[in-house]
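Pinned message: reference record for Long-chain fatty acid transport protein
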Amino acid sequence: MKYAVLGASALALTAASAQAGGIDRTGQSIDMIFKPGTYAELSFGSARPEVSGSELAGLGQGDASSGDMTKGYLTLGLALKHDYNEKLSVGIIYDQPFGADVDYPTGTGYYAEGSNAEFNSEAFTLLGRYKLSERFSVHGGVRYQVVSAKAEVDNFINTLQAIDYEGQLEQASGFGYVVGAAYEIPDIALRVALTYNSEITTKHDTTEVNNGAIGNTPSTESDIEITTPQSVNLAFQTGVAADTLLFGGVRWVNWSEFDITPDVYEAVTGGPLVAYENDTYTYSLGVGRRFSPEWAGSVSIGYEEQNGDIVSNLGPTDGFWSLGLGAAYTFENVEVSMGARYVWIGDAETRNAVAEPAGSFEDNTALGVGMKIGVTF
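Predicted structure (tokens):
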């Protein structure tokens, strides 16, 4: 079965994945290591979430709307893989696994107006795969990750600016690892792959200041650790009819152990800047079909359970449903894949400096599109 079916499927699954749990953006896929021969790919993605909420009475200047507090963003991915012999394959992957870009518009009267935050990451994964037999293989490698973050948090309580906080976490890097195994039956395009991604800790030079009415604190410099979470990916595919592929997976991420807690922010508010109460499980299921030697397409659905937690103002979402479509065109040794994904974001409630819940976010959505060019040598 041609890999174009999977190319279309992958784009449909990953487009707009920012709405997965926590600040997940790519899902940390390693599918490229299973491509035949020497293979290179370049991928682009664009996501446009639309997330807004309303303030609960008595916290600011009335039942104000937050306005759309999310920004669209672009992603870039690169991968290169080579078979050294019939058993050993080695590749390198570049992706941007975690990210956030939040910006509450001013002039709304919403208690968090003017607050904004960014979280940026880049990762390079050196990955190897060794075939123990025609059906069993193991894979593993090392991941180098670079992270930076910044936040400006404003909380207005009945027009009083209770918090006026700024924090800058400078770029820092750290190492982690990847390990897993796969079972395949090539004749029916069956593959089940289990992959563990370790947590990665980075230590950041941090500058903080709060000029609000609560806990006015002079500028402080310190070292703050960020640990991006460990995760497990279980991915599968199998042929179900001629030129037809069933695919999907489950991703677990240990978000309950993730937090960013700068010293001044904790002293002022008594809690973390960003934290999550529960781990997340993200499910996907789809069907791919090759219509001709050149064309293939796919449709997929995604689901993440809504936990019902009070969430941070910097991430007011909780679970989702999604629908994805993908298409791929193959000519000679080149495969061009395109995908789109529409996401119905789960409702969430937020907290502020003195109350929870403080805001309610409902009926929000996101749209993502992606394109990938893959070349087999």
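Pinned by admin. Summary line: The chain has a mean pLDDT of 87.
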